[in-house]
Amino acid sequence: MNGAKYQEFLKNYEEHVATSDYKSILLPNEPYEDGRECYFTQYGSVTDQTILEYESKYGVKLPEDLKNLLKLQNGGHVHEFAPYEECAFDSICSLTLDTSEDRWLFAMIPVYDWLELRGDVEDDEDLANDKEELERFIILDGDGHHFLALDYRGGEECKGVVSVSVEGGYYGAEEICTDFKSLFSYW
């Protein structure tokens, strides 16, 4: 999706938000066909203050395009906007400062923190050796073994989006694209 298409996508998203009632802010987060509640709606909305606190907590600067999407809808399915086959990407996790109980499962947190909360670090000592690097990947989406993540290995600015695999250990990250906005060009 080029820059103009991305801006059109954002505009359409904003119009949909403006014309929707609170229960169905955006189509991707409506209940499933069988009536189950979509898990993304439990995280609440994102404000500029929430983003500042999040960035301070993790020592990162989120990409502006991601901030704009999160303020419209805090996580949700994007299967209509990026092909699953190309980048294993069908949703964006939710931004939250609360990782208690099961809220961390779909939270935009460092890969290492997610693995630690699930108990993987305790089960695989080698992951602890990679803590410093795994803490610099912020999860966009994942299945517990493979993650699509923002890359902060160079500091607080995002270097791009990477695929991180921790199945059977961590063996490095593969670059998907150089910035968050480019992720939508896979569409």
Automatic annotation (TrEMBL):
InterPro entries documented for this protein:
Knr4/Smi1-like_dom (IPR018958), Knr4/Smi1-like_sf (IPR037883)
Domain Knr4/Smi1-like: residue ranges: 45-186
The record, for Gene3D superfamilies, names: SMI1/KNR4-like
SMART domains from the entry? SMI1_KNR4 (SM00860)
Q: What domain of life?
A: Bacteria
Question: What is the recorded name of this protein?
Answer: SMI1 / KNR4 family (SUKH-1)
Native organism? Rubritalea squalenifaciens DSM 18772
**Which lineage ranks, top first, belong to the organism behind this chain?**
Bacteria, Pseudomonadati, Verrucomicrobiota, Verrucomicrobiia, Verrucomicrobiales
